[in-house]
From TrEMBL:
Subcellular location: Cell membrane
Originating species: Wenzhouxiangella limi
InterPro entries, sorted: Na/H_antiport_NhaC, Na/H_Antiport_NhaC-like_C, NhaC_Na-H+_Antiporter
Residue runs in coiled coils: none
First-listed, main subcellular location of the protein, grouped into a coarse class: membrane
Protein name: Na+/H+ antiporter NhaC
Length: 479
């Protein structure tokens, strides 16, 4: 016979969250940029333990809590496999000359005065075409970070511009999973949701592009032409640079447009990169090989998928830029994701998260407060569960009836879920999206967040529209 479970109090629901925020703040203060390499993981697990102890006092059994943790982690396994596969792709694309070729041409085409705006726009176009902010960041974003090094540009601003463009394209693309999920949860149609989302996303992108132009044009960013030429010469000496090196990139984008699932698409891209390295970069492969012959070359490609590549050019900055990748490079990211999902699973499966959300829902008084509360709740769910999908589904379930009760079109809900859930996920340092972007771009969320203008503007514009009653659609009374 199972014992009756008591509903947690608001104070009990708040305690794990307050403890987590305090520990994460202390982690950043004590360990700085290295806080994501262990200290944050410990903070998440301690907060999960606090939540578990509260649940035990409310009548839950450990077996139930553990089952909730296992189920919560299983939700993230797809994303974790993609994260590992992206590490493999980055490693082989570095060795194959794909990323170096993108950097080479980027140095040739991009002017420092409009580099940030161009980075944002390029990522927006690519992400719109493939529907994936993650793939865009891992391919074009990585190359743009390399170009930023060559042009002596700010890496945090570059990362912010990459994410701004990547997430705009993601939100406007019918190929995006979250763009499909939000209208499904809210009860509206995909393309109607995209058109309605555009009223917020397009102005946010326009303002972001203007800001990046002002930042780029308002500072002394004219790079040394001789330095750029020297970097191009180094790249040309290290790699076989030509347009044909971009074939793996074209294939990956083609698979994404054809709507092949992300995991096999990225795996194919990684394997193709390994083949490209063997065929077109024999000197690079030979430099890493432990012996001669085809078998030694295959060993290099094999290990590159696992551990990435290492370049020794004599230029420390260039070596840092062109070395890395491999599945092993993402293990810390996976560690952080597992710990974050453990905390989120404890909060959800023990009723603590439900209690917090119910308390928030009770504060709704008007359309403005409903939209604002939905956006903030989605953001808060990102903080508590570290997962953008949970940040869409949980608030969507909770507020759907309230939006209908107030006569608001489901598109108002779906747009609010995107603005508070998907868009803010890369801003929460322990969220799986932010962890992924940190692993791919090498820039901490705390560093790029102030410059990710699109991510900051979308929720604010959504709240402003509600306050002005602008583009707030109502249901037909006849329905």
């Amino acid at each position: 016979m199972t014992s009756a479970k008591r509903t947690p109090s608001y104070l009990q629901a708040l305690v794990p969250l307050i403890a987590l925020i305090a520990m994460l703040a202390a982690s950043v203060w004590l360990f700085g940029d290295s806080s994501s390499y262990g200290p944050n993981q410990i903070a998440l697990l301690i907060a999960a333990a606090i939540g578990s102890l509260i649940a035990l006092t409310n009548g839950y059994h450990w077996d139930e809590i553990q089952a909730g943790i296992v189920e919560g982690i299983s939700i993230a396994l797809g994303a974790i496999l993609i994260i590992l596969m992206v590490g493999a792709l980055i490693g082989t694309w570095l060795l194959a000359g794909v990323v170096p070729t993108l950097i080479y041409y980027g140095l040739e085409l991009l002017n420092p005065a409009w580099f940030y705006a161009a980075s944002c726009l390029i990522c927006a176009i690519v992400s719109l075409s493939i529907g994936s902010s993650w793939t865009t960041a891992a391919t074009i974003g990585v190359a743009l970070i390399g170009v930023a090094v060559g042009l002596d540009q700010s890496l945090p601003i570059t990362a912010g511009a990459v994410l701004s463009g990547a997430y705009f394209g993601d939100k406007m693309s019918p190929l995006s999973d979250t763009t499909n999920l939000a209208p499904a949860v809210a009860g509206t149609e995909l393309f109607a949701h995209i058109r309605y989302m555009a009223w917020v996303s397009v102005p946010a992108l326009a303002i972001s592009l203007l800001a990046y132009l002002l930042i780029g044009g308002g500072s002394e960013v004219l790079a040394d032409a001789g330095g750029l030429a020297a970097m191009q010469q180094q790249l040309d000496a290290l790699f076989n640079i030509n347009v044909f090196m971009l074939v793996p990139l074209v294939v990956l984008f083609g698979l994404a447009v054809a709507r092949m699932p992300a995991l096999p698409s990225i795996f194919i891209g990684a394997l193709l990169g390994a083949v490209w390295a063997l065929v077109f970069q024999p000197d690079r492969v030979a430099a890493m090989a432990q012996g001669d012959g085809l078998l030694a070359a295959v060993e290099v490609a094999w290990l590159t998928l696992a551990d990435g590549t290492e370049i020794s050019s004599g230029d420390a900055d260039l070596d840092r830029l062109l070395s890395g990748g491999g599945m092993s490079s993402m293990l810390n990211t996976v560690w952080l994701a597992l710990c974050a999902m453990t905390f989120g699973a404890v909060m959800e499966s023990t009723g603590l998260l439900r209690k917090l959300l119910a308390g928030i829902a009770g504060m709704v008084q008007s359309t403005t407060s409903l939209v604002t509360t939905t956006i903030l709740t989605a953001f808060g769910t990102n903080v508590m569960t570290a997962d953008q999908y949970m940040a869409i589904v949980l608030p969507g379930r909770m507020f759907r009836a309230e939006f209908r009760h107030r006569g608001l079109d489901p598109r108002v809900l779906s747009r609010s879920l995107e603005g508070g859930g998907t868009i803010t996920s890369p801003l929460v340092p322990w969220n799986t999206c932010a962890v992924y972007m940190f692993g791919v771009l090498g820039v901490s969320p705390l560093q790029y967040a102030p410059y990710a203008f699109f991510l900051l503007l979308v929720p604010l514009i959504g709240i402003l529209y509600a306050a002005l009653d602008f583009k707030i659609l109502r249901l037909d009374p006849a329905r």
